[in-house]
Every structure is written in C-alpha cells, then in structure tokens.
Design goal:
The structure is a single chain. By secondary structure, the protein is mainly alpha-helical. The protein has a domain at about 115-160. The protein has 7 helices and 2 strands. It has helices at about 5-35, 40-50, 55-65, 70-80, 100-110, 115-120, 125-160, and strands spanning about 85-90, 95-100. A two-stranded antiparallel ribbon has the order 1-2. Helix 3 packs across helix 4 (about 70-80). The longest helix has about 35 residues, at about 5-35. It starts with a helix and ends in a 13-residue tail after the last helix. About 10% of the residues are buried.
C-alpha cells in the first residue's frame, strides 16, 4: 500500500514525464516537419485530416482555431507540395473536401514508422491497465483542449475592434 508521500512523489514524477513526453513529441514533429518542408500549422492540419478523414476548409478552420483565409493559405501550400488534394464531397457536389494524398501517406509512414513500437510497448499491460491509461490520456487531452479554447477566447476578447467610418472615435 502506498503512503501519501509516495503518491505525491509518484504524481510529481508523472507530471515531469508527461511534460518530457510532450517535449519529445514536439521535437520529433519538428524534425519530421523539416523533412517534409512544412511548418507546425501545416503539420497540425495534416494530422487532423489523418485522424478525422477528409474535411472541408471550414471544418479545418474550426479545428485549427484559424480563419478560413488562413486555412486556405495552408491548404494551398500543402496542395503545392502534393500532400493534400481538394475533392468534391460525395454527399454534396457543391462542397469541397481536403484529403491526404498517397504521397504524404507514404512519406509519413517512412518518417513515423508503422506504429509497431507503440503497440509492442503497450503489449505488456493488462486490459484494466490499458483502460486506465486510455482514460488518463483522454482526460489529459480534454484538459489541454479546454485550456487552449479558454486562451484562444481570452485572446480574441483582447483584440481591438476595427474602427468604422461612422464610429465616434474615427471622427
């Protein structure tokens, strides 16, 4: 049985390991981004499409917390690299989806690997332990998503509103 101090020490170790893991993932993603010739926003865009499947530019803008015009620039850049392509939606031919190309999928597999290392690392855990790990990762992701949304909202609230010709401040 753990004592309170043991639990506090373990929680502190876990927090350090989580932060170290985040730094390692960021370093890996940066190195891969450099190999692919993309920046961090491009990388997040590709990752979202990989996770969620083909998406509209508007859906990408919402998921990335960027304007539609900024996402159009990202898509144009990735399309020029032949990492994404625009295709008509099968449900609504007026709508355009952005999907990953086979070229990107091949390059990503070469750079990221096939996931076997992670699967092998997880093999040693029991089903209840894997459930615990999954639940913790989900909780940690939710905390980070909530905090990111709060920060984005507070930043938007601080931006000055553009003056119009009829506003008293402009006269």
């Amino acid at each position: 049985m753990y004592r309170i101090n043991d639990k506090k020490v373990l929680v502190a170790e876990l927090r350090r390991e989580i932060r170290s893991a985040q730094v390692a993932v960021a370093a890996r993603d940066q190195a891969i981004g450099e190999r692919l010739g993309i920046n961090a926003t491009d990388h997040r865009c590709l990752d979202l499409i990989d996770q969620r499947g083909a998406m509209t530019a508007g859906a990408l803008a919402g998921a990335l917390h960027l304007s539609r015009s900024a996402v159009t620039t990202v898509i144009d850049r990735l399309e020029a690299l032949r990492y994404v392509r625009r295709v008509p939606s099968p449900q609504d031919r007026r709508q355009v989806l952005v999907e990953l190309t086979p070229l990107l999928l091949r390059r990503a597999r070469q750079l990221y690997g096939d996931g076997q290392e992670v699967e092998q690392a997880l093999e040693r855990y029991t089903v209840p332990e894997l459930t615990l790990l999954r639940d913790f990762v989900r909780s940690d992701r939710a905390i980070n998503e909530r905090r990111a949304a709060e920060l984005a909202a507070s930043q938007r609230a601080k931006r000055p509103r553009p003056r119009t010709r009829h506003s008293p401040a402009a006269q």
